[in-house]
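Dear colleagues,

I hope this message finds you well. In preparation for our joint manuscript, I am sending the BD-FAE-like domain-containing protein (Streptomyces ziwulingensis) sequence together with its predicted structure, so that both groups work from identical material. I would be grateful if you could confirm receipt.
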Amino acid sequence: MTFPFHLLAPPDPATLPLPRPARPADGVTLLRGAVYAVPDGSRPLAVDVWLPEDATGPVPVVVFVHGGGWRTGLRDDLGPRFRDWRPGPFARLAQAGFAVACPDYRLSGEAPHPAQRDDLAALLDWLRTRAADLGLDTGRTVLWGESAGGHLAALTALTQPTGTISGCVTWYAPTDLPALAEDRPEGTYDPRDATGFEALLLGGAPADLPEAARDASPVAHAGADSPPFLLLHGTDDVLIPARQSVRLAEALRAAGHHPDLRLLSGGNHLWVGLSDADVAECYTRTVEFARRCTAADGEVTGAPPGRG
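The corresponding structure tokens are as follows:
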């Protein structure tokens, strides 16, 4: 007698019950840990979904992608400058009328590029499938990430089908992996090193995998159909030089766009070196950008930045 091995397959995440809702802040519902994908040979991938209560119709979506050098990180962590915010940054976005999705993705110790980009594409598919259940208008979706998460947000935004993404925000993100050797101070980065964060993402030293390094670089995917971009980077970033955001802005301009590039004087990685007011301004600018990019027909919010 043969065994029906198809019964061992996991259930379709699109059919699983949604988590029990919590109420972490006034006017906010949180569905924590909904499974959106079960990659073969990997752990299930989950997403936290923050929703505004009492919405009168489908709401726009912000997908936040966490950082951590592609090696570590928590899906709901915006960094140390925001951990004491009450309410937190995602609850505030929900209070402003957005749904916020904070997903896991496979880390570099689990799978190399392009697994992370594939995971975020699967997350977008899941959101579209569950849009009616969650009250989402996924036709109005902004991607946002910090550090390695900003890299993945940009890479995903630039490789999704035309019209899928309404806008993208990156905070101090790497965007051109082959150029890191030029942008980082001499002696601080070796593209032949197979143990660095970028090498672990690619599955080998960047110098040995030039095609993979290029494919993993958002600059290589900027084109005529790219969505609007807001790029924020500190001038004193010692981990990811601000030149990396400049490179993506230049690539987008060459493709006919007008990205909003903001270089913050004195800012280091994770916004170290900025005042609390400057950090809050980075957040406010991000929310305002998302609002402009996702404005419904008839809303007067100003033209979305970044389009040519």
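For the figure legend, we might mention the following. The beta strands are 22-25, 28-37, 45-52, 59-65, 99-103, 136-146, 167-171, 229-234, 260-264. The chain is about 25% helix and 20% strand.

With kind regards,
E.M.
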